[in-house]
Design a protein that fits this description.
8-stranded antiparallel β-sheet; Jelly Rolls; mainly beta; 2 domains; globular
Length: 527
């Protein structure tokens, strides 16, 4: 018997939707404003997972230009029926303030790796859409209803409507089938048919430390739904001592061994203030059907640190993640993403073979055209190194290595040209829109030549360093507080953000001259 160690998907893999097709398991997760959209991981044993594709990989499927931070792709749902994969997703255009603009779409494919179809528009009434395939061949969309009226709850209930494959649209009337439980904030719906009942699984309690999974059931698809008397099925709310927190937003599947499994969103807090610097992650639980309801196999409702996988003999040791992208091919690693839209003319792998040339565009504040390529932080301890060749001519031109949360929060180790100091290396700290620079003393650099830049993270702390020979790395600036690059750091502002931290290479030219920086490689390793 082998063991899965939670979380099974580390570092910003939220809103999981699990699917089993024959002997293969797939998990689809949110990507928010990062492009390409939706991540699909594959496994044959529920222990070892590999990122295999991003279904939304072209602008005709997903154009997030102008989307606010933490908008974009929310809560994809991956299902399969009669030889076709179905992927439902929300493209959130805005969500700060009283309104949310939430557009729901469907794409399909015959092969999980694609190509995936052009999107079919479904509705915009709320987020977290899910597709249910009934035994009679009919298909139904469920999603939460967004209610912007201040005297109402923002979560107006779960709505269902039939979807027509032939017409490629929703048909008939929509109906609210569930108003939630007293826990509140009802979202993330999935419907399952089991032993004559329709089961409606929802996420409740909000996405922070009160997050939970609840269940209801009915003999009829359209209800009425009876609430599980033992809700919530899973939550970490009353167990703050446990390392796995924020348990909620789940989906389930029957395993190859006949047992049932749930994947759910979670977070791992660090430090006295309990900040989840790796963002939202994905954990696995064994579940059982007992007395007509879904229960955790461990007998309680608290998430587990490890899960036994019966019938699996695979080595349960998961290797530390390592990525070396040397930019020697005609495309870069699937593990690297851009903001909102593809790089297109802002990046080239052919202008200088063996290098990625980034043409400087807008600042990190922009929600439009940035020249940035990044990798999600997936471990508390990691080291990222790059080598850059950059010759700026003024202070508005910058290139380097960024530790990035969103457009308002980041640390940036960058090369620029100062009118009195010449070519220098410095750091910008920008936290919740409050910028500070430089951090530490700027380092004078040779006018020509390549520079090695490095970020080292050590749980709550991080620091930048540099080298001119790739042998001796010298720390620059003060030790950085990594916890400010987390969802939780935003909570006191009244805004809930979602993305976790990324580490990337980038170039800006605020003068509009389009200067470029050449990056020889990007190395990410867990230490």
């Amino acid at each position: 018997m082998a063991y899965a160690t939670n979380p099974i998907l580390t570092g910003f893999n939220p809103d999981p939707s699990i699917l089993r097709v024959d002997g293969d398991y797939y998990i689809a997760t949110s990507t928010f404003e990062w492009f390409p959209g939706v991540q699909i991981h594959h496994s044959t044993d529920l222990i070892h997972w590999e990122l295999i594709c991003h279904p939304l990989n072209r602008l005709s499927q997903l154009n997030m230009l102008g989307n606010q931070s933490s908008c974009g792709i929310w809560a994809p749902c991956l299902t399969y029926d009669n030889g076709t994969y179905y992927l439902i997703y929300t493209d959130v255009k805005s969500f700060l303030g009283m309104f949310k603009d939430t557009h729901n779409y469907l794409v399909t494919a015959k092969d999980i790796k694609g190509p995936w179809s052009e999107p079919v528009y479904l509705n915009s009434s709320g987020f977290d859409p899910s597709l249910f395939h009934d035994e009679n061949g009919k298909k139904y969309l469920v999603n939460m209803i967004m209610d912007h009226r201040r005297w109402k709850s923002k979560f107006g209930g779960i709505v269902i409507q039939e979807y027509s494959i032939e017409k490629q649209c929703l048909i008939g009337e929509s109906k609210i089938i569930f108003k939630g439980t007293p826990i509140g904030c009802t979202e993330g719906p999935h419907i399952y048919k089991h032993d004559g009942y329709y089961y409606l699984m929802t996420a409740e309690g909000g996405t922070e430390y009160a997050h939970a999974v609840t269940m209801a059931r009915s003999e009829n698809l359209l209800g009425p739904y009876e609430v599980d008397p033992c809700n919530p099925v899973i939550t970490a709310l009353h167990h703050p001592e446990q390392p796995i927190q924020k348990a909620g937003h789940a989906s389930i599947t029957e395993g190859n061994n006949g047992k049932w499994y749930m994947v759910h969103l979670c977070g791992r807090p660090v430090g006295e203030n309990r900040m989840c610097i790796l963002g939202r992650e994905t954990a696995l639980e064994e579940v059982v059907w007992k007395d007509g309801w879904l229960r955790l196999a461990n007998g309680g409702n608290s998430p587990c640190e490890t899960v036994e996988i019966a019938g699996v003999t695979a080595d349960s040791t998961v290797l530390k993640k390592y990525l070396m992208e040397d930019f020697d091919k005609d495309s870069w690693s699937i593990h690297l993403q851009t903001l909102r839209v593809p790089l297109e003319e802002r990046g080239s792998l052919t202008e200088r073979p063996g290098y990625l040339r980034l043409y400087g565009r807008e600042s990190f504040t922009s929600c439009f055209h940035q020249s940035l390529l990044a990798h999600r932080q997936q471990a508390f301890y990691c080291e990222v190194t790059t080598k850059v060749d950059f010759t700026p001519v003024n202070f508005q031109q910058m290139a380097g290595l960024v530790y990035y949360y969103d457009s308002l929060s980041y640390y940036y180790l960058y090369i620029t040209e100062d009118e009195t100091e010449g070519k220098v290396l410095s750091i910008i700290s920008n936290i919740l829109g409050n910028g500070r620079q430089p951090i530490g003393v700027g380092v004078h650099l040779p006018a020509l030549g390549e520079v090695y830049l490095r970020l080292t993270t050590e749980k709550e702390k991080a620091h930048f360093s540099y080298s001119l020979d790739n042998k001796t790395f010298i720390q620059i600036g003060e030790t950085l507080e990594a916890t400010v690059l987390s969802d939780d750091y935003y909570a006191p502002t009244g805004h809930i953000m979602f993305t976790g931290a990324f580490i990337g290479i980038c170039c800006q030219d605020l003068s509009g001259q389009g200067i470029f920086a050449d990056f020889d490689y990007f190395e990410y390793k867990e230490i």
